[in-house]
Amino acid sequence: MPELPEVETVKNGLAPVWLNQTIRRVELRRENLRYPFKPDFKETLEGARVTQMSRRGKYMIVSLNKGQHLIIHLGMSGSFKIEGSLYVPVKHDHVLFYLSNDKTLIYNDPRRFGFMVLVEDIEVYPPFKIMGPDPLGNDFNAPYLKRKFKTLETPIKTALLNQSLIAGIGNIYACEALHMAGISPLKPVQKISLSKLELLTQSIRDVLFKAIEVGGSSLKDHRQADGSLGYFQHQFTVYGRENALCLTCKRETNHIKRIVQAGRSTFYCPHCQR
DNA sequence: CGGGCCACCTGGCGGC
DNA sequence: TGCCGCCAGGTGGCCC
User: Fold this and answer.
1) Which candidate in A3, A6, A8, A176 is catalytic?
2) Quick one: average pLDDT of A76-105?
3) What CATH number does the domain containing A250 carry?
């Protein structure tokens, strides 16, 4: 499910229910997600109050009054539900947080690529140490990309997925942003001009903001925390549209193409994207 | 060091 | 209906 817009949506949906509440009890319905839960996981969380909720790239951060931070990654299929205190777990409900407001937060994750980790210090968490700037923030701009891309031969699509260059972009929004900017996913990053990079950074911001506005993309698993679906999938211009007409050039001779780059599907219009 | 490949895991879908 | 292969929003380890 979750790229930056989906994680942002989930965080914003959980915040009104979770923020300032005490976690009365944590129920682990298995011993691991992607990684085993640390022995003190449950004990540390129980009795703690949530003082802040934030996001870094595709990670959600739940900060506690005791000083620790609960870091949550949704993997490919992780989602949250908000229910009452009498909720009965269903398949793939792995972690339940019972809160002081009698709400229950349920983490469901069929594929279990997601994970939860407790850390004392956010800044030393390895994924954050190597993470690039957030594309919605001020540190992300064309000159930054120009500098980073200078010596790289990687195709731009692959580079956009590299979390140490830019945090939070995944397969959908990489494809969508490149289409909006009219840049071929195959283009080696070295060769992209500063003015094209200006266009690209703006396209990335545009597509992410628009997706957040409508609650992210619901393909299979993603739901907003209140259970409602996101709607951005209806606005995909290339993702998942192999052989369909490009909505920009509408040329019958140049339909949307699907290729594989670094093991992931890339969708693009060979006519509009050069 | 960069880049490619594959594993991790479950489920949905299309083809036969 | 059933089985099989392929595909899926991510990350990270291993190998060259």
Assistant:
1) A3
2) 96
3) 1.10.8.50
Q: Is there a domain that residue A136 lies in? A: no
Q: What is the pTM of this model?
A: 0.96
Which of A101, A129, A157 marks a domain boundary?
A129
Residues with CB under 7 A from strand B: A 34, 77, 91-92, 110-113, 152-154, 158, 220, 262-263
CATH number reported for the structural domain that contains residue A100 in this entry: 3.20.190.10
Res. A153: pLDDT tops 80: yes
Identify the active-site residue in A55, A58, A223, A241: A58
The C-alpha angle with vertex A136 and arms to A17 and A78, in degrees rounded to 5, equals 45
**Residue A95 pLDDT exceeds 90:** yes
- A48-72 pLDDT, tens digit each: 999 999 999 999 999 999 899 999 9
- Give the helix ranges, DSSP H, for A19-97: 41-45
Q: Are residues A177 and A120 in the same domain?
A: no
Q: Which nucleotides of B are covered by protein (CB under 7 A)?
A: 2-12
A50, A16 contact by CB (below 8 A): no
Are residues A98 and A119 located together in one domain of the fold?
Answer: yes
For residue A121, the tally of other CB atoms under 10 A from its CB is 10
Residue-number span of the structural domain to which A74 is assigned = 4-129
The pLDDT assigned to A217 comes to 86
What protein residues sit with their CB closer than 7 Å to strand C? Answer: A 1-3, 6, 34, 57-58, 73, 75-77, 111, 113, 126-127, 161, 163, 170-172, 216-222, 230, 263-265
Query: Distance between CA A28 and CA A45 in Å, rounded?
Result: 12
What is the pLDDT, as a whole number, of residue A105?
97
β A264-268/A257-261 pair status:
antiparallel
Q: Is A58 a catalytic residue?
A: yes
Same domain, A77 and A172: no
> How many domains does the structure of chain A reveal?
2
Is the pLDDT reported for residue A221 higher than 70? no
